Every structure is written in structure tokens, then in C-alpha cells.
């Protein structure tokens, strides 16, 4: 499957441009998670919860704790709601 990030959709020729809505650069996974000014508040919330690990892609996508934080971030942004629905509902909170 393809994540509804513009860079991915351009690569499979679903849309003509990967330009992010923030109009600063292409919307890549890295830009979405770490740089896009549109999600500054949501990113700040994640950084408050997990500190410097919020800037570590290997942590965010390669550990259970990081994946939970990534899902919280994605849910807070609402950016992928059309593709995945409310991801908050799929986050395992017990352990």
C-alpha cells in the first residue's frame, strides 16, 4: 500500500505534484514527521512526551513505543484521517 503522503502519490502517478500544503517543499514522510510548519503544535506535543526521541526516525518507526507516539502524532494532525480513519482508536494503550 501507499501512504497518502504526496511524495508517495506522485511516484505512483496519482497526483501531479508532491508540493506540501505548507508550500515550502515536497511532502515526504520526513517532512511530515519532522519539518512541516503546519504540524508544529502536534510535533511539540510529541517532543514534550518523549524528548529527543521525537527526532529519531529509527525510534519512531522501529520501536513499539515509537510507533505508538507516531500514531498519536498522525492522529493529532488529522492528516491521514481520510486513508486510515481515527488512528487513536488503534493505539494499544496497555502493556
Automatic annotation (TrEMBL):
Native source species: Jaapia argillacea MUCL 33604
Protein name from the UniProt record: Reverse transcriptase zinc-binding domain-containing protein
Amino acid at each position: 500500500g501507499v501512504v497518502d503522503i504526496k511524495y508517495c502519490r506522485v511516484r505512483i502517478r496519482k497526483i501531479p505534484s508532491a508540493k506540501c500544503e505548507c508550500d515550502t517543499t515536497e511532502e515526504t514522510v520526513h517532512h511530515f514527521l519532522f519539518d512541516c510548519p503546519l504540524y508544529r503544535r502536534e510535533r511539540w506535543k510529541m517532543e514534550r512526551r518523549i524528548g529527543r526521541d521525537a527526532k529519531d526516525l529509527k525510534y519512531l518507526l522501529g520501536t513499539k513505543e515509537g510507533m505508538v507516539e507516531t500514531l498519536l502524532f498522525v492522529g493529532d494532525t488529522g492528516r491521514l484521517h481520510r486513508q486510515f480513519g481515527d488512528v487513536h482508536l488503534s493505539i494499544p494503550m496497555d502493556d
